[in-house]
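Worked example 2:
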Amino acid sequence: MSTQTKQQQLDQIKAEIIKNNVCPDLAKQATQLVFGDGNADADIVFIGEAPGKNEDQQGLPFVGAAGKFLNEMLAMIDLQREDVYITNIVKYRPPNNRDPYPDEKQEFLPYLEQQLEVIQPKIVITLGRHSLNCFLPDLSISQVHGQPKRFKGRVYLPLFHPAAALYNGGMRQTLIDDFAKIPIILKKLT
């Protein structure tokens, strides 16, 4: 039996989402599926909530202003996008950038789980409360941000969403401080 590379497995999951017509109403009004981007062998996976306008147009997650800030923070800890994997829970842009509905997140969650199964990251970084609550529903982002949580054999690090930091200077510094913990947490996990 030929073993597929991780990237081939990820491409297969992407094809399945399209084949299975996940969230047809969202798909109809989106330009394209925004599946994920980065290194299929990454130690770190970032998970946002859903693509925005820029992401919808380019087919890549986190390419707008929040993505630029994410890139800056990665650079601060000596990483680039190519070193990590970035995705969202919901893979189509919700109309007018509204929050994804619970049923939309539910429909996409099995595919996200498959992505994580393939990549096997050492740490999953949730960006924003939607992403956090998909995995750890009982936690509040304002209370647990920057604190690693182990759950079902996986380590999660909840962070504020970079978009929130663009409009709130204080949160920007909090996010930078939390981000600085990533290499330290990774070291402990190796």
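The radius of gyration is 16 Å. The first helix runs from residue 6 to 19.
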